[in-house]
Amino acid sequence: MNYTIELSEHAERVIAAVAALHGVTPDEYIQQFITAWAAELTTDEELDPEQAWFWAPEWQAGERKADADYATGRTTHYDSDEAFLKALEEHISDATETPDADS
Length: 103
Known about the structure:
This protein is mostly helical. It folds into two domains: 1-41; 50-96. Helix content is 59%, strand content 0%. α1 (9-22) packs across α2. The termini are far apart.
């Protein structure tokens, strides 16, 4: 699900300045802010214990990384499950091959 947030020019400048202080892009800063805000809104009592792992800071960091990868095109699309599995098997094979002793 995607949402659009419209900000005034002043708000954009303030967010850009604060993001720079934190060493992140304005988009990353907004995402971190929203994630932290959502975490505060959701108390432990409201969380399904079987889903609590999703809200762990480590998992949320991975979610933000995945979102950034997707947004910048650092993803691969496969047209079928078979194509994905073939690529995965090739990747595993490449990673487990031992280099030639003569090389």
